[in-house]
Design brief:
Pfam families: ABC_tran. GO terms for molecular function: ATP binding; ATP hydrolysis activity; transmembrane transporter activity. The protein is built from 12 helices and 14 strands. It has a 7-stranded mixed beta sheet with strand order 6-7-8-3-9-10-14, with helices on both faces. Strands 2-1-4-5 form a 4-stranded antiparallel beta sheet, with helices on one face. Helix 3 runs parallel beside helix 5 and helix 5 packs parallel to helix 6. The radius of gyration is 31 Å and the shape is elongated.
Length: 382
């Protein structure tokens, strides 16, 4: 889906250059949930914005379904974003003056398509917002607003969903609900998520890319690791857990295997005989009933499943918004910022007044003004 080669971006200051991204090389699969992790300033949001066509880059190349960014004009990036990408932002970015249905319909209108009520209703049901289509954003909770953003991203059937800190403004319970929704979508789409939450990444990601100082420092993919077993039901899981399926079946050699494993490790150790505790430990550590454990290992070619793209068959839809919706958007923005509206009107009046005065003064001729004044007063001599 996405191929990134030697991608770099710098921010220039008076005294030096700061690398936001430095020689990034990645191949990203067609489907699945990919987390981009890193501390503040690591470049994770910049990478997402560049991949989504929201920001430019200085060096390198991005191939989108086999089509190289070297062949793009700026308008092509806008069309690529309109065609392939569904964005989800931390602050939702919904239009407060629009209803839920109108917010969702905007994504289709940008593609020159008419919003169909049946289609919108299906999307609302998919994100658990059924019956809320006519509400305004100020009548919704934070979790519901984020699901409106997800629905708006989904309505145009994008190939890729890009989410920048989608749970950052939500509590942990609501954040989990949002990630559950995105995880379900990742079965058929590529979902790229920028986050700083390693725990969420470990629980939900199929792949984790970690950045520091604009560079990739880690790239791992999830896979199931089979445990080492003995014939009597003793499993050694990733050298971290000993799982005994049936204590009554243990033989003397099994006890020796267990003691050998215990001697390998130093420090604290916990042995639990409580059924519910064991069940919870398996859930937390992603251990299946058959003893297999979900682990992250370095990403290799086998983890990256993509179709064969030639680039020639890829077409983009140019962004266009109906005049009515454009005017409504403009008016809604003005309503949100009344002080800015007042200052804009005031400065416009002052500017036009000063312009008129300066134009009048520039055209003023004292001799001509005196002549007309004498003529109007019927003075025939000086």
């Amino acid at each position: 889906m996405l191929e990134i080669k030697h991608l770099s971006k710098t921010y220039k200051t008076k005294h030096n250059e700061v690398y936001a991204l430095k020689d990034i090389n990645l191949s990203i699969q067609d489907k699945g949930m990919v987390f981009i992790l890193g501390k503040s300033g690591s470049g994770k949001s910049t990478l997402l914005n560049v991949l989504g066509g929201l920001d430019s880059f200085d060096e390198g190349e991005i191939s989108i379904c086999g089509k190289s960014s070297k062949d793009f004009k700026q308008s092509d990036f806008d069309s690529y974003r309109n065609t392939f990408i569904g964005f989800i932002f931390q602050e939702y970015n919904v239009m407060n003056n629009f209803t839920v249905k109108e917010n969702i319909a905007l994504a289709l209108q940008l593609q020159g398509k008419k919003a169909d009520d049946t289609q919108i209703q299906e999307i609302l049901e998919e994100v658990d917002l059924s019956g809320l289509g006519n509400r305004k954003p100020n009548e919704l909770s934070g979790g519901q607003l984020q699901r409106v953003a997800i629905a708006r991203a989904l309505i145009k059937h994008p190939e890729i969903i890009m989410a920048d800190e989608p749970t950052g403004a939500l509590d942990s319970h609501t954040g989990k609900q949002v990630l559950d929704t995105l995880k379900k979508l990742s079965k058929d789409k590529l979902v790229l998520i920028v986050s700083h939450d390693k725990e969420f990444a470990k629980n939900y990601a199929d792949r984790i890319i970690e950045l520091a100082d604009g560079q990739v420092i880690s790239d791992t993919s999830k896979e199931r690791a089979a445990p080492a077993r003995s014939k009597n039901g003793v499993s050694i899981v990733e050298n971290e857990f000993i799982n005994i399926s049936n204590v009554e079946m243990l033989k003397e050699e099994d006890y020796q295997t267990i003691m050998e494993e215990i001697r390998k490790h130093k420090g604290e150790m916990m042995i639990s005989f409580h059924k519910d505790t064991n069940k919870e430990m398996k859930k937390i550590n992603h251990i299946a009933e058959n003893g297999e454990m979900e682990v992250f290992h370095d990403t290799k070619e086998k983890h990256i499943h993509t179709k064969g793209y030639d680039g020639a068959s890829i077409s983009f839809i140019k962004s266009k918004l109906p005049l009515k919706s454009s005017l409504k958007l403009a008016l809604s923005n003005l309503k949100l910022k009344p002080f800015r509206l007042f200052m804009t009107v005031l400065l416009s009046v002052v500017s036009f007044t000063l312009f008129g005065l300066s134009d009048t003064m520039a055209k003023y001729d004292r001799g001509v003004a005196t002549f007309h004044s004498m003529k109007d007063s019927q003075v025939n001599y000086i």
